[in-house]
Design a protein that fits this description.
By secondary structure, the chain is of the alpha/beta class. The protein has 27 helices and 21 strands. The protein has a 7-stranded mixed sheet with strand order 10-16-15-14-11-12-13, sandwiched between helices. It has a 5-stranded parallel sheet with strand order 19-18-17-20-21.
């Protein structure tokens, strides 16, 4: 605390008269200092005793400005929210760690009341991390005269998980947050750094376990199996190849499994089983109910028989689970007084049972009793399973049989039995099937079997008649189908495929003959569509001068120079004059069409043993030039036909060609009438 005079003396200002000390008041310096102190007071950086500044004292904001060496922009009348860490006093990251935690309000207590929430200097030590828009040294933002409007004390439930090394007994701690289903890294780090707190929690847990008296070396043999399994899993993860599949296989081979891991991997164990799984739990939790709910929803290829104990605290959850079980076709549930933990599976006609057994877990100098799930293989427990099955039969058979009777009666009286699938009828008794060998309910069960078989027979007959009726109608349409109507053919085929999809695989054989008919018809259409290169011999033109019209525009027609030459010679002979002239006239008429072409012979293409000066061979050499373009040599000459086929050139007569191209006789007749 300094007076006006003290400040003036420190600054070297002459603000007082003291002739004895040769000090004389400089009124200019006096006014400068006074104005400066007035400004500081206005900015609330100092407090003063009176107008003459008999004493001056820095305020908190003044001290802050002094420390930072600059004056900040001060926010007033603006609300903000800060988070405090009552666990570790690390307020700077409290918002990051707590803002999104699912917490509940709690009363003030000795822990959360030890902080002075109104200490403005404390607030400013971490405000920049939480509210940088209000308090930021770099941007010269600050606040002053903060007032606590409201405070809320929050708490959150987290779970400390202790991972114990079965070999050394040492442990490390993870903190689990149930809401996010994840590890909370902040509190995990806190507990691992504060070993005393972690040890206290761990000690509380250990109190729940009894002491394993006088363990022998044999009692600890399980540790070797566990360590070996862990190394195998680590190897699988490191290789990163088919991780889920290989770990699943590994889980099913384990002889010892930690209980929580067993519940976590229960679906894997069940999926590896065949036919039936018996699940008997002497303790129930929300986690177990959630796990089983997912299992009965995801697994439907085997029967699941579940025993759960009565638990008044989980009555609502158990009732909801019971409802879910009732909606499945392969799950059964009995809630009662269950004394044992047993999970029974079957694989390749070998039965295994998982049971909880006590083993010594050495921690520090003591060995506690710790339960591991142990797998016992190749066990003979048929009598026990028969007894369990009888329990479920008593619970379920009567109700299920009534439901099935109602279903069968409803379906058998249906107007159209063909609407039901064969699989639907075959599975109508799926839920009651595990109890068919129950002697105490044999009368009810045999009646269900008989009624099911009668319904199944009626449904099959109705469906077969429906298929047969459909096939007959399609065959009639196919029979009258013209080869010119390919669109209708495709419509019929699509209609058949769509109808076939309505039926099951075992009924598909009824469509085989119809599918063969479609295949044959399809080949006919393909043959028509396939463009060919037709090389015409002279004798064909004499027989049918209008051959170009008969073949049509869908095929390529080739005339060799030798044919034109021969026609020119034949028009001078009385017996062939008219036909030759007609043929030349037709060729002339069509010669500019795109599918008509002319070519000369290349006798070098002919084999050496053929006469290269023969007119027939010259025509054949033209055909060889179209070898890769679906050639057909159209000729009545038997010798030329033989030579062409020797060279892999198809040779046809007019009749054979029209048949091949599926040209109707009516079209051929009409063309001839036009001549």
């Amino acid at each position: 605390m300094l007076s006006f005079e003290d400040i003036g003396e420190i600054l070297g200002f002459n603000v007082i008269d003291n002739p004895s000390q040769k000090k004389y008041k400089d009124y200019a310096e006096y006014e400068i200092l006074k104005d400066a102190l007035q400004s500081l007071e206005e900015f609330e950086m100092i407090t003063t005793g009176d107008n003459s500044y008999s004493y001056c004292q820095l305020t908190d904001i003044g001290k802050e400005y002094f420390q930072k060496g600059k004056k900040f922009k001060v926010h007033t009348n603006k609300q903000f929210e800060l988070y405090f860490d009552n666990t570790n006093d690390d307020h700077s990251i409290a918002k990051d760690n707590f803002e999104f935690l699912k917490s509940v309000n709690t009363e003030e207590n000795s822990i959360n009341s030890r902080i002075n929430y109104e200490d403005e200097q404390l607030l400013k030590t971490f405000a920049e991390n939480q509210i940088p828009e209000i308090y930021n040294v770099k941007k010269m933002n600050s606040f002053k005269d903060s007032v606590l409007i409201e405070k809320e004390h929050k708490s959150v439930t987290l779970y400390a998980v202790f991972l114990v090394d079965v070999s050394s007994g040492k442990y490390r701690t993870l903190v689990y947050e149930d809401n996010s289903k994840s590890i909370n890294t902040y509190f995990s780090s806190y507990l691992n750094k504060n070993r005393e707190n972690a040890d206290n929690l761990f000690f509380q847990i250990l109190q729940k376990y009894g002491i394993y008296q006088n363990p022998t070396s044999d009692d600890f043999l399980y540790r070797e199996v566990l360590i070996k399994s862990q190394k195998e899993i680590e190897k699988i993860i490191a290789e990163d190849k088919n991780i889920s599949e290989k770990i699943a296989k590994n889980i099913n081979q384990l002889k010892f499994i930690e209980p929580f891991m067993f519940i976590d991997k229960l679906d894997t164990i069940i999926k590896n089983s065949e036919n039936e799984v018996w699940l008997m739990f002497n303790k129930v939790s929300k986690l177990l109910i959630e796990t089983l709910s997912k299992i009965i929803n995801d697994i439907n290829d085997k029967y699941l028989f579940i025993y759960l104990p009565i638990n008044d605290d989980l009555e609502t959850e158990l009732e909801e689970f019971k409802r879910k079980v009732s909606e499945t076709l392969n799950s059964y549930l009995i809630i009662g007084n269950i004394d044992e933990f047993n999970v029974i599976t079957e694989k390749s006609n070998k039965t295994s049972i998982y049971k909880k057994d006590n083993f010594p877990l050495k921690i520090s100098s003591k060995s506690i009793k710790y339960k591991f799930v142990r797998k016992h293989t190749n066990v003979e427990i048929k009598e026990h399973i028969d007894s369990f099955r009888q329990d479920f039969a008593e619970e379920y058979v009567e109700n299920i049989s009534n439901e099935i009777d109602s279903l069968i009666a409803e379906k058998i009286n249906s107007d159209d039995l063909s609407n039901y699938s064969i699989k639907e009828i075959e599975d109508i008794d799926f839920k009651i099937s595990p109890f068919y060998n129950s002697t105490e309910h044999s009368l009810i069960l045999s009646e269900i079997k008989e009624n099911k078989l009668a319904l199944l027979k009626a449904v099959k007959n109705a469906r077969n008649k429906k298929i047969e009726s459909f096939i007959v109608s399609i065959l009639e349409e196919l029979k009258s189908l013209e080869l010119s109507d390919e669109r209708k053919f495709k419509t019929l085929k699509a209609k058949t495929n769509k109808e076939k999809e309505k039926f099951e695989e075992i009924e598909s054989s009824l469509f085989l003959d119809l599918e063969k008919k479609f295949l044959l018809k399809e080949k006919e259409f393909e043959l028509i569509k396939k463009r060919k290169s037709i090389i015409i011999d002279t004798n064909i033109l004499i027989e049918e001068p209008k051959i170009i019209d008969i073949i049509g525009s869908l095929q390529n027609i080739i005339f060799s120079a030798k044919v034109i030459d021969e026609l020119d010679g034949l028009k001078n002979k009385s017996e062939t004059k008219n036909k030759a002239q007609d043929a030349i006239r037709e060729i002339r008429k069509h010669q500019k069409k795109r599918n008509i072409s002319f070519n000369t012979s290349k006798v070098d293409n002919l084999p050496d043993d053929l006469n290269k000066k023969s007119p027939d061979n010259m025509i054949l050499s033209v055909a060889l030039q179209y070898q890769k373009r679906n050639p057909i040599l159209l000729t009545n000459d038997k010798g030329l036909q033989i030579k062409a086929e020797m060279l892999e050139i198809p040779a046809k007569t007019i009749t054979e060609l029209t048949s091949l191209l599926s040209l109707s006789k009516r079209n051929k007749t009409n063309n001839r009438k036009k001549r």
